[in-house]
């Protein structure tokens, strides 16, 4: 037989080849994750994997962390020397610590959720001196562990291949350092998983070969017979009858005790705590328990297979004779594998050793790097280090530690005494010191308030939402805290039971009775080994894939189809063709009038929203005093009434996102909110951090919240909240399609996530769709007021890190509001009552409300409320345009009146014209319930190059009227319909409220009708100047923003010289309607043409006592012919109204001009020459 089983090339090939494979693989995977899943390696990701690792990967990480070369080799050697007891006591001696450690892991997650290392706790709990002691001991332990890994692993490669042992020590870490630098702790965990898959494959392969398929052994009976024969040839001293098939083994038990005591030294092993830190809180207990039970199968099953096989095959020609030197080098496993499986078996063992060494070393260098980064550099060298600097220090520590580990390269009773004393004295010292110096009254909340998530705002590629998500890990939700408290109790119970089972209940009866396995019992033992190995392998291999199936699917789908994560973008419209009978080329126009008479689309849409009710925010942060009763929060008792008063004062529609928990805590307050006309929307059950909810928890949150709402809707709280329509997730982060599906299933119509998550304004498709109305952090008061947002402020680079005053909030909010008004789009402003806790902050919110109210009165803003505007709800992309004129280019077979080449104006309201329709039959077709009006949802508008239109609703244009004037016949028809219905007569004094497009065409029509005198009002002096240029005799009044309706009415009456007989109101704004009413004479009329919000208040008794008629106009009927006549005869000149002209290809510029107050646009037209 050759001196070594394998050639040197095999050793170098495995170390260099697989090292390069993992290094390149992890680098490529990190690149793909960054590209397709926005996963950027900041310091938090590098060291903690965002504290989100699930149960399966936690369990596989535990298995891999606990599996080093000694696990594979020593356990098999013990089994070879002492029989079945060696395999069992090796596994049991190191398994119970995992169960005990689970308790520590649960407490770590609960006490310090933002921790990066467990030594951070030591620094706060024991001070600098205690911190340094922990660092020194942990470092020494890590040195010993890494030296054992590298030297032990290299020695095995040397023994099996003859490669240079020093070369092995240097080469083993190379690939590890590269993939660890690339992927951090997540790379370690992912490689942990791949390593455990290989190791379990070897365990299962060995079981099948030894006990079912081998030509040398092949059945439990043959193994049993050969082990009984081996006991006669080489009996085991201290074993019952010298047998290998007995649990009564003095040396086996003593070695188990040594191992049991020694492994408790891992309580200062930073890498084990590091794995606990990466775990999601809900995954900690099951992850460690499953991991412990699964790890036991490796030494137990592997040694029971190859250790017993090596002993059973001694003396056979296929088996290498094992010497005492071979035993000391742990070569029983590879020799047995080679004898049973040939050269491939030896290679497989080398691969397992490589996997075990690299996984253990990677875990150690990441953990030591974390200690160096956060406990040395971050604590004592640069306490204010940014996330980017911490990440660089982490990378440096990885390299330094790998070099340091390379450079630093018994009798049983003394071992028992040494380890036992070390274990027991630690507990005794703690008890003695406590009684001697008294218990330390330590405030455990300091671990939450003094350990913070690193600020990664200077790390390239991280979004503000990712940083905010990282920050959310600093605090536990009440549910998480409760679960971890309960989990600790469960862990203590489970750990105690399992320790008793593994240490006493299972082995001791067989030890005490000196039982020697019978043939039947040995078969049972082998069957148990198979079952345990299969269960562990299946759990560790399949569970991570099942838990991560959606992420895996999303990743591969994105990679295959090239879809990158969504980024914020502008809302875009889709213009489509449709219609019948005739087709023409059109020139359409987009009105400057932001009221948009048909309420189809708002260029600038705003939502005033409120988040959080009562003490849920304090409960969420564990800050609510236990002595204070629930249901007494100042924000509800004191702040909320002021909110409601201000909303009413400025007539601002609002949505309050409340937590369903409050339905029973604050029912009266919620009734008050709902009765004030404020929409009550949903904000989770009790403000759970939505990003942390797994699929089951998210579904349960929906069920619990909507059940509570349903109970109230049918019980005493009927009418409180009939049904939520909107949802905003706490933290703003949702789980994509999973959350949207739950929203649809529960009847929600819109959702308001964070724009920083990549959410885009969406009104997409159909009756079951969910509108997406995102918010931005720049219009969230917490962004300015709370210290927790310092990292986000720094990352955006627009504000100092420290919290800001209310003056900054007002300035920034107004900037954002005006920006949206100028450029178009949607904006949500967000306030929290619990943060509006000073007069200054309340005043700041009032300034924002006041500004919104002003801009609305200027006609620039529509409020978006619950997924629709007024009664018109948009469910899809909508083409705009209902003011058009063009030329006929093709006619249908039934067209009789018009021909190709005719110039026409389009009347865009198409009634049903059925004899059964009363409105159509009586000539009031504008009231037809089945009317189709272009650009009114769901009908697309006429702003397109080609359009099909019914002949009956096309009006021929004389040569004296241009296409531009033809398009303006539509708003002129609105004005003519209003003047006709108002009964205006020659010489009647008239007031027109609003100098927007409708007000200006009403002015032209009233001037032609002979009204005198005429007063027109507006907030904007530029519009009044336009009115004066159109009709020089008109008298103008600029409305004062801060004056009430009565004061402005006095200005109007003064300009008119009398009280108004007729007021034509063209804005639809409540305050403007009030002004018109107060300006009217006894018996006068106020005629409202403008479109306003659904519900408005009026000075009812004033209207009643003065017998003022309040009337309204909806669109028009049969006015186009009259409008054409007035324009063609020169009585009304519409041309000056067109201030801006663009081609169809310049559509975006046209909309920007129409939406920008600085452009001073009245009518913006799109022309197609």
Automatic annotation (TrEMBL):
It is found in: Membrane. Keywords: Membrane, Metal-binding, NAD, Oxidoreductase, Transmembrane, Transmembrane helix, Transport, Zinc. The chain crosses the membrane at residues 12-34, 55-75, 87-108, 129-151, 157-181, 193-211, 253-273, 285-310, 347-374, 395-417, 423-439, 491-512, 524-546. GO terms for molecular function: hydrolase activity, acting on carbon-nitrogen (but not peptide) bonds; oxidoreductase activity, acting on the CH-OH group of donors, NAD or NADP as acceptor; urea transmembrane transporter activity; zinc ion binding. It holds the Pfam family ADH_zinc_N. Its cofactor is Zn(2+). Pathway: Carbohydrate degradation. It is a multi-pass membrane protein. InterPro entries: ADH-like_C, ADH-like_N, ADH_Zn_CS, DUR, Glyco_hydro/deAcase_b/a-brl, GroES-like_sf, Na/Glc_symporter_sf, Na/solute_symporter. GO terms for cellular component: plasma membrane. Gene3D superfamilies: Glycoside hydrolase/deacetylase, Medium-chain alcohol dehydrogenases, catalytic domain, NAD(P)-binding Rossmann-like Domain, Sodium/glucose cotransporter. Residues 626-864 form the NodB homology domain. GO terms for biological process: carbohydrate metabolic process. Its main location: membrane. CDD domains: SLC5sbd_DUR3, sorbitol_DH. Belongs to the sodium:solute symporter (SSF) (TC 2.A.21) family. This is NodB homology domain-containing protein. The lineage of its organism: Eukaryota, Fungi, Dikarya, Ascomycota, Pezizomycotina.
């Amino acid at each position: 037989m050759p001196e070594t089983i394998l050639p040197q090339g095999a050793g170098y090939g495995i170390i260099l080849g697989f090292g390069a494979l993992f290094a390149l693989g992890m680098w490529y995977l990190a690149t793909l994750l960054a590209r397709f899943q926005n996963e950027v390696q900041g310091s938090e990701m590098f060291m903690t994997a965002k504290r989100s690792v699930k149960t399966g990967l936690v369990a596989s990480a535990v298995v891999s962390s606990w599996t080093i070369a000694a696990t594979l080799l020593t356990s098999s050697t013990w089994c070879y020397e002492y029989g079945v007891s060696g395999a069992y006591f090796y596994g049991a001696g190191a398994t119970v610590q995992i169960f005990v450690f689970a308790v520590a892991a649960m407490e770590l997650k609960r006490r310090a959720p933002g921790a990066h290392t467990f030594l951070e706790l030591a620094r706060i709990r024991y001070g600098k001196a205690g911190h340094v002691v922990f660092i020194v001991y942990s470092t020494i332990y890590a040195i010993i562990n890494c030296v054992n890994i590298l030297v032990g692993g290299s020695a095995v490669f040397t023994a099996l291949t003859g490669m240079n042992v020093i070369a092995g020590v240097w080469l083993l870490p190379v690939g590890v350092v590269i993939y660890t630098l690339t992927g951090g702790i997540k790379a370690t965990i992912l490689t942990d998983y791949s390593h455990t898959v290989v190791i379990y494959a070897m365990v299962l392969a060995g079981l099948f070969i030894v006990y079912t398929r081998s030509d040398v052994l092949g059945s439990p009976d043959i193994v049993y017979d050969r082990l009984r024969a081996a006991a006669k040839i080489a009996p085991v001293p201290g074993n019952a009858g010298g047998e290998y098939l007995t649990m009564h083994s003095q040396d086996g038990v003593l070695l188990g005790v040594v191992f049991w005591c020694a492994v408790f030294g891992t309580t200062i092993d930073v890498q084990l705590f590091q794995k606990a830190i990466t775990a999601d809180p809900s995954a900690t207990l099951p992850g460690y328990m499953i991991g412990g039970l699964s790890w036991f199968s490796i030494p137990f099953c592997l040694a029971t297979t190859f250790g017993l096989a090596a002993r059973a095959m001694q003396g056979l020609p296929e088996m290498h004779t094992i010497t005492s030197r071979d035993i000391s080098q742990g070569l029983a496993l590879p020799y047995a594998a080679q004898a049973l499986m040939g050269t491939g078996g030896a290679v497989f063992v080398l691969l397992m050793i490589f996997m075990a060494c690299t996984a253990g070393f990677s875990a150690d260098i990441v953990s030591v790097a974390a200690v160096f980064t956060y406990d040395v550099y971050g604590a004592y060298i640069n306490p204010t280090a940014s996330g980017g600097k911490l990440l660089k220090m982490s990378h440096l520590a990885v390299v330094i530690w790998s070099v340091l580990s390379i450079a630093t390269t018994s009798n049983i009773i003394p071992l028992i005494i040494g380890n036992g004393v070390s274990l027991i004295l630690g507990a005794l010292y703690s008890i003695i010191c406590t009684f001697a110096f008294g218990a330390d009254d330590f405030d455990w909340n300091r671990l939450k308030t003094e350990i913070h998530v690193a600020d990664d705002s200077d790390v390239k590629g991280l979004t503000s939402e990712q940083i905010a998500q990282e920050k959310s890990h600093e605090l536990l939700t009440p549910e998480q805290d409760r679960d971890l408290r309960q989990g600790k109790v469960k862990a203590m119970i489970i750990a105690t039971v399992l320790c008793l089972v593994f240490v006493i209940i299972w082995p001791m009866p067989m030890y005490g009775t000196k039982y020697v396995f019978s043939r039947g019992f040995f078969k049972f033992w082998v069957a148990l080994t198979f079952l345990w190995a299969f269960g562990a392998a299946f759990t560790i291999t399949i569970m991570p894939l099942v838990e991560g199936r959606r992420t895996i699917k999303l990743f591969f789908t994105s990679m295959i189809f090239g879809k990158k994560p969504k980024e914020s973008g502008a809302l875009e419209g889709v213009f489509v063709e449709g219609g019948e009978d005739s087709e023409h080329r059109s020139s359409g126009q987009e009105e400057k009038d932001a009221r948009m008479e048909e309420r189809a689309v708002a260029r600038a849409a705003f939502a005033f929203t409120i988040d959080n009710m009562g003490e849920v925010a304090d409960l969420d942060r564990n800050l609510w005093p236990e002595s204070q009763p629930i249901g007494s929060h100042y924000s509800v008792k004191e702040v909320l009434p002021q909110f409601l008063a201000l909303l009413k004062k400025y007539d601002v529609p609002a949505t309050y996102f409340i937590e369903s928990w409050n339905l029973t805590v604050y029912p009266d307050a919620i009734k008050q909110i709902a009765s004030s006309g404020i929409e009550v929307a949903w904000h989770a059950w009790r403000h759970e951090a939505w990003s942390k909810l797994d699929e089951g928890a998210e579904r349960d949150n929906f069920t619990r919240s909507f059940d509570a709402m349903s109970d109230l809707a049918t019980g005493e709280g009927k009418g409180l909240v009939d049904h939520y329509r909107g949802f905003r997730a706490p933290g703003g982060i949702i789980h994509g399609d999973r959350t949207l599906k739950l929203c649809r299933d529960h009847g929600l119509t819109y959702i308001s996530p964070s724009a920083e998550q990549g959410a885009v304004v969406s009104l997409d498709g159909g009756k079951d769709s969910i509108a997406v109305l995102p918010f931005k952090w720049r219009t969230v008061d917490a962004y300015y007021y709370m210290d927790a947002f310092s990292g986000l402020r720094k990352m955006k680079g627009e504000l100092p890190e420290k919290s800001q005053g209310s003056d900054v909030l007002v300035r920034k909010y107004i900037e954002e509001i005006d920006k949206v008004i100028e450029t178009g789009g949607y904006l949500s402003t967000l306030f929290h009552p619990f943060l509006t806790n000073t007069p200054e902050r309340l005043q700041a919110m009032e300034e924002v409300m006041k500004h919104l109210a002003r801009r609305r009165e200027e006609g620039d803003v529509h409020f978006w409320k619950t997924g629709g505007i007024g009664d018109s709800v948009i469910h899809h992309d909508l083409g705009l345009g209902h003011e058009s004129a063009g030329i006929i280019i093709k006619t249908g077979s039934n067209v009789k009146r018009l021909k190709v080449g005719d110039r026409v104006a389009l009347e865009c309201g198409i009634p049903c014209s059925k004899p059964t329709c009363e409105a159509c039959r009586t000539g009031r077709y504008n009231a037809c319930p089945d009317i189709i009006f272009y650009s009114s949802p769901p009908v697309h508008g006429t702003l397109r190059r080609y359009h099909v239109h019914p002949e009956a609703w096309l009006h021929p244009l004389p040569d004296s009227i241009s296409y531009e004037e033809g398009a303006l016949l539509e708003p002129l028809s609105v004005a003519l319909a209003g003047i006709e219905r108002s009964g205006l007569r020659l010489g009647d004094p008239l007031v027109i409220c609003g100098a927007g497009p409708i007000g200006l065409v009403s002015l032209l029509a009233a001037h032609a009708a002979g009204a005198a005198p005429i007063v027109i009002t507006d907030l904007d002096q530029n519009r009044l100047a336009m009115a004066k240029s159109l009709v020089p005799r008109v008298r103008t009044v600029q409305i004062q923003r801060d004056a009430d309706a009565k004061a402005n009415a006095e200005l109007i009456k003064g300009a008119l010289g009398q009280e108004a007989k007729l007021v034509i109101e063209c804005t639809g704004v409540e305050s403007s309607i009030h002004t018109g009413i107060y300006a009217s004479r006894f018996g006068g009329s106020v005629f409202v043409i403008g479109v306003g919000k659904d519900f408005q208040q009026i000075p009812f008794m004033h209207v009643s006592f003065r017998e003022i008629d309040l009337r309204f106009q909806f669109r028009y009927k049969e006015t186009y012919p009259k409008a054409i006549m007035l324009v063609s005869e020169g009585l009304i000149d519409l041309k000056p109204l067109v201030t801006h002209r663009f081609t169809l290809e310049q559509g975006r510029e046209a909309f920007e001009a129409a939406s920008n107050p600085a452009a001073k646009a009245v009518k913006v037209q799109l022309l197609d020459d």
